[in-house]
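So, could you explain the following?
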Amino acid sequence: MADLHILTIFLLALSSNLDNVGVGTSYGARGINIPFSSNLLIAVITSAGTFVSMAVGNAISNVLDSSVANAVGAFLIGGTGVWVLIQEVSHRDEGKSDVSELLQETNFSNQSVFKKALTILDHPFLADTDFSGHISVKEGFLLAFALTLNNLTNGIGAGLLGLNITLTTAFVVVLSIVTIWFGIQFGRYSSVHWFGRFSGRISALILIFLGIYEYFN
């Protein structure tokens, strides 16, 4: 049973980091580099977001009946997977690669930090705000914020399920670094832009599976 518990934590951390593969692939294909310092910063911030959101979920579970907390946690995780899958399937890939056109269309420079984070999730290369081909530590903060926002629901759901916060956070740190690195290498050597689309769908399916499994377990 303990092995299944660890497997659940690993799969949840993996699904929460599969967006990083898409981001890394986009960067690698465009020749944008994320140095280790920025990659580590992203891992620390996203794992901190996981820790806090899980703590919130855990606190909520303390005032709920255990069966209710488990059902709500499973619903949050599985529901997030369904939502992500719908977004991935229905998302129209405009195929726009002209940065100036995207900046003008999105009015990126005048957006709030929150809106910029949401825009970066759709167009990760916009995190390279100075177009240097290099994600600095400062730019890494914005990218990390975007990725953290994307994973808050998973963290709350995991906290409601009573998953180990320390172990989950540790998995998130390691997998965050690995998935970004892998995505960059894949994009750099294959020049494939669409690979990240599959990572999003795989992440959604993992979340749906975990939600169903935890609900009936």
About this structure: The chain has one domain: 2-216. Residues 2-30 form the longest helix (29 residues). Residues 3 and 104 are 50 Å apart (CA to CA).
